[in-house]
Amino acid sequence: MHRGLDIAIAERAGDHQCLINSPFLMRILFLAGTIVLFTACTQAPAPPAPIVSSIATSPDTARTAPAAPVAVIPEATDSQRVSSGTTPSAPAAAKARPTQSSAVQATTTTATPAGPTPAPAVVPPVPTPPDHRPWSDLLQRHVDAAGKVNYKGFKRDMPMLLAYCDSLAAHPPSDNWSRNERLSYWINAYNAFTVRLIVDNYPLKSILQLDGGKTWDVRRIRLGDKRYSLNQIENEIIRPQFQEPRIHFALNCAARSCPPLFNRAFEADQLDAQLQTRTSLFLNNKDFNNIQSGKLRLSKIFDWYSKDFSDLRAFLQPYLSLTINPNASISFNEYDWDLNE
């Protein structure tokens, strides 16, 4: 029985073997495999479904939720690339590390062009005092130590005198000047323009011959963009602005009884000492003042300008070698208006 079964199985296996070895069936199987392989290669796998975080469940939490950190992979150095065999090609290396010239070119081409450079603000020059040395030179030439003036000599040097007066006109006092710079300017201006007035009208016997005796009120002195009279310079500028009584022994009115004309220009850095010396010389000169302990015979200047000296005895005492009696009498000399030559 078993033998018959084995014979039957062997016969069926033979039939299957014949089917497998059939050329027709082999072509069909080859074609089917090719189709399956082609389909598998042309179809891309579906992307994974995005993972939605539960943090962004509302608009507010979505705006405030921190971003997920991004891993930064450091770039390999050239030595690492060489050792690993991954050295970049020349074009890639050049692109990765731009040269200085390319960086400068990029900066130049991308910079926003600046607007026109504004012109610098014009700062006016700070006014400076004039040089008083030319005036000092003229005084040394034509005024002696006693204050006698050689007006003929000044007339010969008229161009120099005019040049100094023009210098005063071109450099009027400024607020940035020191007190002494301004005061020395005004004293020198008063004296220089007085000398010029006499020289312009020389020869003459007295300054009172000019403008009907009112020449001090004529506005003939140009300084800057203004015109002044001698009286304005003395009584509207020097006296009220500086409150300095010693100026009365520095200003000269071209008369014999005036305090002698100093044969030097007044200078800011020496002004206090110069005023002190001129005051002492005038007070102790018997041609102008005769001072005794109990009797004072003084220049008319102390009468005309008495309010400038306040306590007259207190003003005089520091300049004298004697002591003034508190009850000393005071009188004033007549004024001689003849020219101081």
Helix content: 40-55%
Query: pLDDT average, as an integer?
Result: 80
Distance between the termini: 182 Å
Strand order of the largest sheet: 3-4-5
Low-confidence stretches: 1-20, 48-109
Largest sheet: 3 strands, mixed
Radius of gyration equals: 57 Å
Total helical elements = 15
Fraction in beta strands: under 5%
Shape: elongated
> Structural class from helices and strands?
mainly alpha
Number of strands: 5
The topology string of helices and strands comes to: HHHHHHHHHHEEHHEEHHHE
Task: Provide structural commentary.
The protein has 15 helices and five strands. It has 341 residues and is mostly helical. The protein has a domain at 133-285. The strands form two sheets. The protein has a three-stranded mixed beta sheet. α9 runs antiparallel to α10 (179-200). It is elongated. Residues 1-20 and 48-109 have low confidence and may be disordered.
